[in-house]
């Protein structure tokens, strides 16, 4: 299962920062090259919501992520396989990654029981909100896998490491993830330790299930916000023949906690394998993670915020429904090269949102993805010459973090 057994896949570090573990890499797959650090737009159901594949290319996307759990339930992996795999099915001809379904297990299990609501209601790395009303879990985790009720039709279904890998093989992404148990920020040390041990056993099963395959398999580091568990997991995963790493699970209750988790974890992972931080991608998160050696990110935040009328600017988030934008003829940002900013004003975007026009969702999503992808391009260019600290200082001299609403 080493990378050498898969000649169409490789990862090369081409430059390093002189003042941090940040690095620039080239991840080669059968469907193209990804220059890292790279942000991965999330296309849960095989579609980055509201955008075409041509628009994704135009905003600078190199690779997209699709969700194993959701595509397994609908339309089903055999349908996708029969139609040529995810690349032909979706029309995206670039590199693709599928997650394992483990995070969806969390959302149906402790995510509901601990009152954090539906999937990603509390973003990893974001300051945790007070728990909402708890709900009965819709899944039961045992030592070999998970029983759960489909959120679509209530069917009782089984997901385990072998099924997760089989589904991902049928979907045909270039990179797949091992099946894991993602714990809650409210999980105790004792439970997190048991889940970690279970995740490691499942990782071994995933390796066996993918043996001889041509997809890269990433192992997932778990351990919650507990230093000794994170270190133990990183050391164990590092010794396994995975092609790369993903860092998942609870990253604590604040962004500072997230950075500490990375500081505990990354030094124990081999330099020559790519590192993916799961579920992270707000502008303010990227610098600290890249400076600690992260290569890949994915997050629904840019497109989710866009669909709710919030866009990124160099000065922070802008809410497009605000009344004072009614006669604002400026683009979202004067120096942004995205289609939305080249063609449309804040006033027009506000009009679309308050009128519930579907075009609003598309135009805001184009801008937000371009903002993130352009920022990562700037970071990537700044790394070799040691200019990343200056770029970070320049960015945060203007970017204002929104205050959290309790």
Would you mind describing this structure in some detail?
This protein has about 400 residues and is an alpha/beta fold. The protein has 16 helices and 16 strands. It has helices at about 55-60, 70-75, 75-80, 85-90, 100-110, 110-115, 160-170, 190-210, 225-240, 255-265, 285-290, 300-305, 340-345, 345-355, 360-380, 390-395, and strands spanning about 10-15, 25-30, 30-35, 40, 65, 95-100, 140, 145-150, 155-160, 175, 215-220, 245, 275, 295-300, 310-315, 315-320. Strands 4-14-13-12-11-10-6-5 form an 8-stranded parallel sheet. Strand 11 (about 215-220), helix 9 (about 225-240) and strand 12 form a beta-alpha-beta unit. The termini are far apart. The model is unreliable at about 110-130 (pLDDT under 50).
Considering the chains and any ligands shown, give keywords for the structure.
406 residues; alpha/beta; eight-stranded parallel β-sheet; three-stranded antiparallel β-sheet; 16 helices; 16 strands
Topology readout:
Blueprint: E1 10-16, E2 23-29, E3 32-36, E4 38-41, H1 53-59, E5 64-66, H2 68-73, H3 77-82, H4 85-90, E6 96-98, H5 102-108, H6 110-113, E7 139-141, E8 146-149, E9 156-159, H7 161-171, E10 175-177, H8 189-209, E11 216-221, H9 227-238, E12 244-247, H10 255-265, E13 275-277, H11 283-290, E14 296-299, H12 301-307, E15 310-313, E16 316-319, H13 339-343, H14 346-354, H15 359-382, H16 388-396
Parallel strand pairs: 4-14, 5-6, 6-10, 10-11, 11-12, 12-13, 13-14
Antiparallel strand pairs: 1-2, 2-3, 7-8, 8-9, 15-16
Helix pairs in contact: 7-8, 8-9, 12-15, 14-15
Radius of gyration: 20 Å
Q: Classify the helix fraction into a percent range.
A: 25-40%
Low-confidence stretches: 110-132
Q: Roughly what is the average pLDDT, rounded to an integer? A: 91
Name the overall outline: globular
Tell me the distance between the termini. 47 Å
Largest sheet: 8 strands, parallel
